[in-house]
Design a protein that fits this description.
about 80 residues; mainly beta; SH3 type barrels
């Protein structure tokens, strides 16, 4: 079960936010016992890039044997 402050992986591209499948975010709020999540996506220097409301199908927990990957991001819509 995903909890507040858990790191999660995005399961789908969200081009309107400049986010791609595989991006890592932090759950900052849980809606209705897991019916939705507010997830913050940050740059590696701590700049908030987007805060997005997502359904459970759009995120998943980080797996034990996964590795992070950095990518450059242009501007992201608020």
């Amino acid at each position: 079960m995903i909890k507040e402050l858990d790191s999660v992986v995005l399961n789908a591209d969200l081009p309107e936010y400049g986010l791609e499948r595989g991006d890592i975010g932090t759950v900052v709020l849980i809606h209705g016992d897991g019916k939705g999540y507010e997830v913050e996506f940050m740059s590696l220097v701590g700049e908030t890039m987007a805060v997005v409301s997502l359904s459970p199908s759009k995120i998943r927990p980080i797996g034990r044997r996964e590795i992070a990957h950095a990518r450059a991001v242009e501007s992201i819509s608020p």
